[in-house]
Design brief:
This protein is of the alpha+beta class and 349 residues long. Helices cover 39% and strands 16% of the residues. The protein has a domain of 236 residues: Ribosomal Protein S8, Chain: A, domain 1. It has 10 helices and 12 strands. It has a 7-stranded mixed β-sheet. Strands 9-8-10 form a 3-stranded antiparallel β-sheet, with no helix packed on it. α2 packs across α4.
């Protein structure tokens, strides 16, 4: 598989965004977040999202410049209107502000309404754990639906991802999961490639379980099952409702006032362990548990027991050394935009 220098990919993505009218600071931030997703191996939510972002910019549905409007600021509790700015820019700004304020107040939560899509949630986590802090991140698109509540058949909400990360005495723990069994992006990719899921992860329009990703795109459409599937989907359903409350409820503008636009509401929550049991005690406890997890005897079909994020961090380190491997569909989807905007495609090595 061809590999590309991460810095070259950032420059390429930023160039496409700038040539589309995005201000330089925003363009570079969005490019960095997208490439970070690919570095970690989340290749449906890295540069794979850029063609859709460029289309949104061309159609005037994503803002090209500006800053969020501050709706409320109580120090440890902040609310923004994102003004439909690119999600990676808004979330990066929110993460940095929360990291500044958490040591002052013990924690800081920032709610963002009317963000655009925020890309890969895992891409924001290391930035927080590198500072010795803990983060929870919730995101939901109040304007779309592809997942039905457990036991139902009509799409009501989105896959509703949740991310969390904390430091240990070694590598951090980094969790990025959806409350659904798969994502919209992965379902669309498999439908394009004619690849079925390994198990019935969707319901067709009549409510029958299926492994066919095309079920999501019929008329009427099917739905993606909650995390846990047919047997334990009530757990994913519960997580989805939590995300709805944290992302849409705290934003004060959710599905009750939905619009026909692609976007997101977001909640960023950063903790400073020093304000609770102490940072050293936290990392010692987290480190002990991490060690016990790694030495846990694996099942016969498992090579080793890993911590969440361990594989992604290993991929990131390898990609920074050897180049980023891109999914075969990514550059062909960006090539027409590069030609249209006059940008050179990155060269592999």
């Amino acid at each position: 598989m061809p590999r590309y220098a991460a810095a070259d990919l950032v420059l390429f993505a930023a160039s496409l965004l700038e040539k589309s009218g995005v201000t330089r600071r925003i363009a570079i931030t969005v490019a960095e977040v997208l490439v970070e997703g690919d570095l970690l191996g989340h290749d449906t939510h890295g540069l794979a999202q850029l063609p859709a972002y460029l289309d949104e910019l061309a159609g005037g549905r994503m803002a090209k410049g500006g800053e969020p409007v501050v709706l409320s600021d109580r120090g440890p509790a902040v609310a923004w209107d994102g003004q439909r700015l690119p999600g990676p820019y808004l979330v990066r700004q929110a993460v940095d502000l929360a990291c500044e304020r958490a040591p002052l107040h013990g924690l800081c939560g920032i709610s963002i309404r009317r963000s655009h899509h925020i890309a890969c949630l895992a891409a924001y986590l290391k930035r927080v754990t590198d500072r010795g802090l803990v983060m929870l991140l919730f995101s939901a698109d109040p304007n779309q639906g592809s997942v039905a509540p457990f036991g139902g058949t009509r799409a009501l909400y989105t896959p509703n991802p949740i991310a969390a990360a904390w430091p240990t005495d070694g590598a951090p723990v980094m969790i990025d999961i959806s409350a659904s069994i798969t994502t919209n992006a992965m379902t669309a990719r498999r439908a394009r490639e004619g690849v079925r899921f390994p198990a019935p992860w969707l319901l067709d329009a009549a409510g029958h379980p299926t492994d066919d990703p095309n079920a999501l795109f019929t008329n009427p459409p099917g739905t993606i099952l909650p995390l846990g599937g047919m047997e334990a989907g009530h757990k994913g359903y519960g997580l989805a409702l939590l995300v709805e409350a944290m992302a849409n409820g705290l934003a004060g503008q959710g599905r009750a006032r939905a619009q026909d636009k692609w976007g997101a509401n977001v909640f960023v929550l950063v903790f400073d362990p020093e304000a609770f049991g102490g940072r050293d005690a936290f990392t010692a406890e987290a480190g002990w548990l991490a060690t016990q997890i790694r030495v846990n005897p694996p099942r016969p079909d498992v090579e080793a027991v890993r911590l969440p994020g361990e594989r992604g961090l290993a991929r990131r380190a390898a990609a920074l050394r050897e180049g980023v491997p891109l999914h075969a569909s990514i550059l062909p989807a960006l090539a027409p935009w590069a030609e249209k905007l006059g940008a050179a495609l990155p060269k592999s090595h």
